[in-house]
Amino acid sequence: MLLGKELYLFFYRYGIYGIFGIFLSTLLTSILLYQAFHFITSHSIVSYKDFINKLFSQSNTSSLPINKGSFDFGTFFHTIITFFLVVSFFIMIAGFGAYFKQEFNVSPLLGSSILALFCFFLFHKNIEGILKVNSFLIPVLIVLIIYFAIRSGSSLLPFSLYEFISYSPDWKWILDSILYSSYNSILLIPIMIPLRILFKKE
């Protein structure tokens, strides 16, 4: 989801080329997730660790230089990605607390605790339960976005349209689009693993 600082850092600062970046990032993410889901289903992946281990298995990396030696790349990358996911979770919790403080003037600890408890109960549900929760949450989020957009009024577009269109590209927007796609793919692939079971049922 494009929010605040992310939207500015990865896309908005590049002017109209940021729009091209959004399309490029969307395309790359779609391709990555399609390939990842194909890999998950064809190898009967049951967990993220299983995904990493099979991705860096002997058969998949036999032609790559990283396969040489006794270093366990599967465990190495699994550790790094797990750390990244945990840090991202804490950042999300902290951001939600800060948002509660900004909008409702309540303690950030309260907002963070609410989201942490919600995630705790959500993580104890299977993928079908999570999809049911999302079917309720997504319409609520859309309503909230529209509400805050209307409430923002004239401050909704705090930029010069001329500056936005006349931006001179330096092609860094392509790199940032790739980075944004990679960043989100790391977060989305773990969600796709339990989806394999759901698709198998159907």
TrEMBL record:
Organism domain of life: Bacteria
Residues passing through the membrane, by range: 12-34, 76-100, 106-124, 136-157, 177-199
Xref: InterPro entries: YkvI-like (IPR038728)
Swiss-Prot/TrEMBL keywords: Membrane, Transmembrane, Transmembrane helix
Keyword Ion transport listed: no
PANTHER family: CONSERVED MEMBRANE PROTEIN (PTHR37814), MEMBRANE PROTEIN (PTHR37814:SF1)
Protein name: Uncharacterized protein
Naturally occurring in which organism (per UniProt): Candidatus Merdicola faecigallinarum
Taxonomic lineage: Bacteria, Bacillati, Bacillota, Clostridia, Candidatus Merdicola
